[in-house]
Design brief:
By secondary structure, the chain is an alpha/beta fold. Helices cover about 25% and strands about 20% of the residues. The longest helix has 13 residues.
């Protein structure tokens, strides 16, 4: 199910299913983002956990975080926008009955990294699209640029998105950093000779591996029943090349890749790490070459920005154009 594209003055519901925004620099960014959100809408609901950090690694306890999500999904909001990633969002799945949510009004859920724990089951249990994209505090930058600008274009129905010519490799720890795009982008491919199409599914590999094989894993069933081939978009947060190989081994043997037309691979937080003479790209090729499908590496999404927002569970054509990733949505 594709939510409606937004029009003027959409209702945005902010949630904190993982980290809250109470510490520097996230509190300051969220405060400024709330000012800038008014340039989009004056219709904002701030969830009860957004400005909490009752746990060292989560806004509050798992049951309360799950309730915030459930209330947002059952609301009349147009957009549910997560305020952050984190580490243990997976805990909320134990308190969400997706069968009870099958008749809700579709709405756009936006977030990345730990938010894979919601974006994946929204697709595989509710057949709902979501946006693997920036967190709400990233709206602190104005005029809006890069992923925020593209996310707003996506919400309004834009169909074509391209990667960026450069990305940010150096870190800037100021409260309100500006992008310092100091690394020229260079796409590389494996087994790619023409555009390929399919339904996009994926997220942060760290989270996907955690879900895989649990009672919250419906991916094999979903992909088996899909009329369209699947394009997996994958990136990692804290996984080194060997972690990636082990993770892909697990997904492969849980039958996730039985109906796949290709892969697009983003950049991890440890971009460029070498281990035993292998890099991320080597790990993906070694693990997935048996499928004989195209792979595109160094794509503009993941933990090193700027990143293209990606519509999970949407049908798209993937290509490389002028050494940049191009995603063209077909619906």
């Amino acid at each position: 199910m594709k939510p409606n594209y937004i029009k003027d003055n959409p209702k945005i519901y902010l949630v904190a299913p993982s980290f809250g925004t109470t510490t520097t620099p996230y509190k300051e960014r969220m405060d400024k983002a709330l000012i800038n959100i008014k340039k989009i809408t004056n219709n904002v609901i701030i969830g009860p956990n957004v400005f909490k950090l009752e746990y060292s690694c989560a806004s509050t306890n798992a049951k309360a975080r799950a309730k915030e999500i459930i209330d947002a999904l059952k609301s009349d909001a147009d957009v549910i926008w997560s305020v952050g990633g984190g580490e243990i969002m997976c805990q909320i799945l134990e308190y969400i009955d997706f069968n009870e949510l099958k008749n809700i009004k579709p709405k756009w859920y936006i977030g990345y990294s730990d938010n894979t724990n919601m974006i994946l089951p929204l697709a595989t249990y509710l057949n709902m699209e979501a946006i693997y994209g920036p967190h709400a505090p990233d709206l602190y930058r104005y005029p809006f640029d890069y992923e925020i600008k593209d996310t707003l274009r996506m919400l309004k129905g834009e169909k074509i998105f391209k990667g960026y010519k450069s990305f940010q490799l150096s870190r800037n720890d100021k409260i309100f950093p500006k992008y310092h795009l100091d690394k020229r982008n260079k796409i590389s491919t494996y087994n790619y000779d023409k555009p390929f199409e399919g339904k996009l599914l994926g997220g942060c590999l760290d989270c996907l591996v955690t879900i895989c094989g649990t009672k919250f894993d419906n991916v094999a069933e979903f992909t088996k029943n899909s009329k369209e081939k699947i394009i997996f978009f994958l990136e990692a947060c804290e996984m080194n090349p060997m972690d990636i190989m082990r993770g892909l081994f697990q997904l492969k043997n849980a039958n996730w890749f039985n109906n796949v037309s290709g892969f697009i691979l983003g950049r991890s937080m440890f971009y460029g790490m070498e281990q035993f003479g292998m890099y991320d790209k080597d790990s993906y090729i070694e693990s997935l070459k048996y499928l004989n499908v195209p792979m595109i590496f160094n794509c503009d999404f993941g933990h090193i920005g700027p990143t293209i927002p990606i519509r999970s569970n949407a049908y798209a054509k993937i290509s490389v154009e002028n050494n940049l990733l191009k995603i063209e949505y077909k619906d």
